[in-house]
Design a protein that fits this description.
36% helix
């Protein structure tokens, strides 16, 4: 894996006195890369919205199923994982390169702790390539420009956007980000996406007070959206079975997991 230089002022962005999503999420899934402030906020949110830990685990399991499906059944050999988060067991490159050792993976995040861990943990196979770029989801042009150093955009790419667009508070901007990324992809490319919802049929009403507390006590701010709004991210793409569903139910074994208020889907570009 190549090492991207730490951006100027990068270390100044590291604030261990305020809970940060990447570290709180790591805490919820049982990781060790978090601080006391992350644990405190994580416990408070979990007290308000107990299913949050199940959401975190379901989102991680969705990643595994989606990458395996894309590599095995769709033959995808290139992955652009936007909003990587802190590395844990079975990251995108590990799953993809077990199936296809020549797979190429580019991770994208802009948290300095994620960057530090990515340099040491996200190492891939000799046959494939694994890279990490420090970039913001709000700047898709920069992501595409730097990812093109590792990925061949004349061949299918799977863009993974798991739990990242909920940090783009402006809905029109979020849709534009997806459109710009997808526009750069050739036919046969795929978009895998998860996003929290407040839809009551998935039990999402509890997200609203929990997110209000989060936005007052942690960073970055977050939002949930309706299933209809989330479905619109896939405009112009063909949703693959089973469509847009709770991420815990996407291609899962029957009766395996409870429904969680986090939509997930995979779609292909015609």
């Amino acid at each position: 894996m190549s090492e991207s230089p730490t951006p100027a002022g990068g270390s100044a962005r590291l604030n261990t006195g305020v809970a940060h999503n990447a570290r709180v999420w790591n805490y919820w899934i049982g990781g060790k890369d978090n601080y006391e402030v992350d644990q405190q906020v994580g416990e408070q949110v979990a007290g308000m919205f107990p299913i949050i830990r199940e959401i975190a685990r379901a989102d991680r399991w969705f990643l595994g199923r989606a990458v395996r499906f894309l590599a095995e059944e769709r033959g995808v050999r290139q992955f652009l994982d936007v909003g990587t988060g802190l590395p844990t067991a079975d990251n995108t490159h590990q799953i993809a390169q077990r199936i296809a050792p020549d797979a190429r993976i580019v991770y994208v995040d802009n948290d300095p702790i994620v960057l530090a861990h990515a340099r040491t943990l996200l190492t891939g196979t000799h046959e494939g390539l694994t890279d990490y770029i420090d970039a913001d989801v709000h700047d898709p042009a920069a992501i595409l420009e730097r990812a093109a150093q590792t990925l061949d955009f004349t061949k299918p790419v799977a863009v993974m956007m798991l739990g990242i667009l909920n940090f783009v508070l402006d809905y029109d901007k979020a849709r534009e980000i997806v459109r710009e990324l997808v526009a750069a992809l050739p036919s046969g490319s795929c978009l895998a996406l998860t996003h929290p919802t407040f839809d009551e049929d998935l039990g999402g009403a509890g997200q609203i007070p929990a997110m209000k507390f989060w936005n007052e006590n942690a960073t970055p701010p977050i939002t949930a959206r309706s299933g209809e709004e989330i479905a619109a991210f896939f405009e112009g793409l063909d949703l693959l079975e089973p469509g847009l569903v709770s991420c815990s139910k996407w291609r899962a074994e029957p009766g395996s997991r409870a429904v969680v208020p986090q939509f997930g889907a995979v779609a292909v570009k015609p």
